[in-house]
Design brief:
418 residues, alpha/beta, Alpha-Beta Plaits, 2 domains, 6-stranded mixed sheet, 4-stranded antiparallel sheet, 15 strands, 21% strand
């Protein structure tokens, strides 16, 4: 089949049947799947039924029944994968919502509720696009697959990470994660992370004589935290092919976050001491103090380099007795020259009639697991940013319909024809 003929007819079908797509998204919103606690059985059952009804084979897999992922697909051979998480962050204080977060409300221009932008409507658009290829029996030269995962909002270890470690992405040549990006940008890289846990020991004594006979564990951690921001001077090194993406990413961060110098968040290390614990009583010299520090690492800098600098800081401060442990995940990116990136950008620009810019993000998501496995991966999905992880979350219907069109068109380009 000619990919451009298939594309034209699918885009017409999506226009004609967009109410079905909106109804699917609304149904997904009506099934709460807050994480924590992370119970997703009902939404997993709903999606499994949708897949079965559309003749798409699916299986439920995972490390335990508490973490069911759906792997589904049509066709054979090397796979173009979609990925979407079906958990949402809790709605929080209901009084702060102007509508029921789980009502699945549809207005003339928006779908409203928890998970509309992050990311049940992106997931709905991917499922809907996929169902059309099954219904229309469009011949594919490879496999069109999807991973629907449960625990992205708490780190993804039991969802996407588990799927990749267990071989479910071994046949993938590309992956599209339907996370919210908004229509004018697609995500092609993310920062890495070093989570540092430090524990300082001291010598207990009465507080009144502590300066002479004790050893204050809190003051050791305070000394360290007083200089930890020195790590922020570390920056990434970028290749020529990444230079334009870097410029665009810094501009986008500057526009979105609107604070002095905030564009630097893309190519600099950031440091956030998030937890500190120490001491028992005001008149006792504390003999233990612990802290957790979240360090984000830009593309072009390894976590090893950051850990070395941290160790150097401990030496300079004579804090050799401070114990520490680190959990590292590397920054990751997909080259913009990859066919996947060009195809999404071209189709998105054709559907929207505006520029779509590949960019790096300051946060991270499940996309990293595919990239670290070597699968070219990008994120593109409908979004109204203000409600994400906040109140009054919604998404524009036009954004959802266009996402379905862009996904369908991309599948045509990458999987239809000789
Ligand atoms: Zn998300």
């Amino acid at each position: 089949m000619d990919p451009s003929a298939a594309k034209r007819s699918l885009l017409d079908i999506i226009d004609a049947r967009k109410n079905e797509l909106v109804a699917l998204c609304s149904d997904l919103i009506k099934i709460p799947s807050e994480n924590p606690p992370g119970k997703v059985d009902e939404i997993v059952a709903f999606i499994s039924r949708f897949l079965a009804k559309n003749g798409i084979e699916s299986r439920i897999v995972g490390p335990s029944p508490a973490y069911p992922s759906i792997v589904a697909g049509i066709g054979k051979g090397r796979a173009l994968l979609f990925n979407g998480h079906c958990d949402v962050v809790p709605a929080g204080d209901r009084a702060r919502w102007d509508f029921d977060p789980y009502g699945g409300d549809v207005t003339s221009t928006t779908i409203r509720g928890r998970g509309t932008s992050d990311m049940k409507c992106g997931l709905g658009a991917a499922l809907f696009a996929m169902s059309l290829f099954a219904q229309e029996r469009i011949p594919l030269k490879g496999r069109l697959g999807i991973h629907i995962v449960p625990d992205e909002e708490t780190g993804g270890a039991h969802g996407t990470k588990w799927l990749i470690e267990n071989g479910y992405a071994d046949d993938a040549f590309a992956c599209i994660v339907a996370e919210p990006t908004g229509s004018d940008t697609c995500e092609v890289g993310q920062k890495g992370q070093v989570r540092i846990h430090v524990a300082a020991e001291g010598k207990a004594a009465h507080g009144s004589i502590g300066n002479y006979v004790g050893e204050n564990a809190i003051m050791k951690i305070v000394a360290l935290l007083g200089r930890i921001e020195e790590l922020r001077s570390m920056t990434g090194e970028y290749s020529e092919s990444q230079a334009q993406v870097l410029i665009d990413s810094k501009r986008i961060a500057q526009e979105k976050l609107d604070r002095p110098q905030v564009g630097d968040v893309i190519d600099h290390v950031t440091v956030n001491p998030g937890i500190i614990k120490g001491g028992t009583k005001i008149n006792m010299v504390p003999d233990l103090c612990e802290a957790d520090i979240d360090v984000r690492v830009p593309i072009g800098l390894s976590t090893r380099q950051v850990v070395s600098r941290f160790e150097e800081l401990l030496r300079q401060l004579n804090l050799n007795s401070v114990r520490y442990s680190v959990e590292c995940s590397e920054a990751n990116y997909t080259e913009v020259s990859e066919p996947l990136v060009r195809t999404i950008v071209d189709n998105a620009e054709a559907v929207w009639h505006h520029r779509v810019v590949p960019a790096y993000q300051w946060a991270s998501s499940d996309a990293r697991y595919y990239r670290l496995k070597g699968v070219p991966t990008l994120q593109y999905g409908p979004a109204n940013t203000p409600g994400i992880h906040s109140y009054n979350e919604d998404v524009d219907i036009e954004d959802v319909v266009n996402a379905a069109k862009i996904y369908a068109a991309t599948i045509c380009d990458l999987l239809v024809g000789i």
